[in-house]
Amino acid sequence: MSATTAEKPPDVAPRKKRSLKFPTAITTLAIVTVLVWVAAIFIPSGRYQTDDTGGPIPGSFEEVPSPLEGWDRIRELILSPVNGLYGIQDATSGFVNTENVGRMFGSIGVVMFIMALGAFISVSFSTRSLEVAVSSMAQRLGSRGWLLIAAIMVLFSLLGSTMGFSVETFGFYPLLIPLFLALGYDRMVAAAAIILGALTGSMASTVNPFSIGVASGEAGVSIGDGIVLRVVLWVLLTAIAVAFVLRYAAKVRRDPSASIVGHVEVADDEEEASPVEPGTKLSRTQTWVLVITGLTFALMIFSVIPWSSIFGATAGPAEDELVHATATEPYWFELGWWFPQLTMLFVLAALLVGVVARMGESTIVSLIGRGAADMIGPAIVILLARGVSVIMTNTETLDTVLHAMERAVEGASAAGFAVLVTLVNIPLAFLIPSSSGHATLAMPLLAPLGDFAGVSRALVITAFQMGHGLMLLFAPTNAVVVGGLAIAKVGYDKYLKFVWPLLVINLVLVVTVIGIAAATG
């Protein structure tokens, strides 16, 4: 053997190729924010003259110098998340920042609401009452879980159609996700049932005062005009959405590998609870916790419904989605609650559950803090989505986009005009996810144009609402979508992969129905 024996090089583990992954919801919204900011640099600023109600006057658009230049534009981008959280809109200039005196434009109300919700769920779940109840219900339902999915979607769709029920759905994720998982479904089924149920109803609004009510007031017609067509569309769109989700749910229950989202791993700092033994009965304390939970959610729904506006069928620009105020004199039993009251409802309910379950003070405080912290991710997503609207508002480019929409629909035939109204309002809803805000800006321009095209103002309202609602089913600027997906731990890319066939079906159906309705007068 020679003295110089060649040594064998050590084995080197092959490098793993890093696969490209779709970014998280927070990164996605950050990218959208930057893209909108860049687009606003190239879109000229413009302004409509407004009437006494604040609506734009047709034909009055003119370009104006940009209110932001140089460093001001960069500062606007940097501060957009902060303004999206608690920016205040000046009543005169419309500019949004944290130092104004005016009305709240940011999403601090929603953020506080979901953090209070997280606190309540944390305290309630610690008693394991919901887990025992879910296990029992899953055993009773067996293979009939599809009935629960259909019932929830129809209920949420009805609430969405009549009073714009959407952000309130955040409270139902922690309740429904464990139940659907126990029934053999995945998180996508839970998220889709909630999101598509509520937003399909909002899309096919019938007497929703915060969309149809505002649009009718701006167009100068009754909220009941065109309701027959809107009811038909609500029935069709809701039936299609329910069937679409049930088809996927049945496939996943039959073959779990068909799930789009797969298994969601538990984070390192989370404890995975042991499964509930079959036949486990609720203790007396757990029964009381369930009663408190049920009453809390029932009170939440009852307190936010604008009963007088729905049954009084009154339209008007005074309908206000931000503060949940309507133009109609409320009935004596209406509570008129919104995010401040709902936030404290869940905080007090969390404390009550802690007392009933005989938890110590330190345990209650710890659980409340932990639950609120669990909602930080969804809260960031929501404030980023609102920050996009702040950028468009402060750069005064929204009116320029509206003017482009106004020009796009001019001179079209009746059917063509109605279809174009639907189509042009789809991208506009991306920038203005608020239905009342969108209606206030768009309807004063579209309603008079409909007169020239021979399209009734009621049909113009329906076409507008269809376009707005279709975009909200998947828009990353819609807090109901991105916030709900964040709570459900479903990736936005997975949701898009799931929902795109439904979007195509809805678009074809809506364009066909709207076009025929316009052509036949």
Continuous helix count: 20
Strand order of the largest sheet: 4-3-5
Helix content: 55-70%
In angstroms, what is the radius of gyration? 25 Å
Beta-strand residue percentage? under 5%
H/E element order:
HEEHEEEHHHHHHHHHHHHHHHHHH
Largest sheet: 3 strands, antiparallel
First-to-last CA distance: 101 Å
Number of strands: 5
Transmembrane segments: 20-43, 104-125, 146-164, 170-186, 193-215, 227-250, 288-307, 338-360, 412-433, 470-491, 498-519
Keywords: Cell membrane, Membrane, Transmembrane, Transmembrane helix
Main location: membrane
Protein name: Arginine:ornithine antiporter
Which helices and strands occur, and which strands form pairs?
Elements: H1 25-42, E1 46-47, E2 62-63, H2 71-86, E3 88-90, E4 96-97, E5 102-104, H3 108-125, H4 129-141, H5 145-163, H6 173-182, H7 187-203, H8 209-219, H9 227-254, H10 284-304, H11 307-312, H12 339-356, H13 361-374, H14 376-394, H15 398-409, H16 414-431, H17 435-453, H18 457-472, H19 479-488, H20 492-519
Antiparallel strand pairs: 1-2, 3-4, 3-5
Textual characterization of the structure:
- InterPro entries: C4_dicarb_anaerob_car-like, DASS-Related_Transporters.
- Keywords: Cell membrane, Membrane, Transmembrane, Transmembrane helix.
- It is a multi-pass membrane protein.
- One of its GO terms (cellular component) is plasma membrane.
- This is Arginine:ornithine antiporter.
- This protein is an all-alpha fold and 521 residues long.
- It has a domain of 260 residues.
- Helices cover 64% and strands 2% of the residues.
- It has 20 helices and 5 strands.
- The strands form 2 sheets. The chain has a 3-stranded antiparallel beta sheet with strand order 4-3-5.
- β3 and β4 form a beta hairpin.
- α8 packs antiparallel against α18, α16 runs antiparallel to α20 and α18 packs antiparallel against α20.
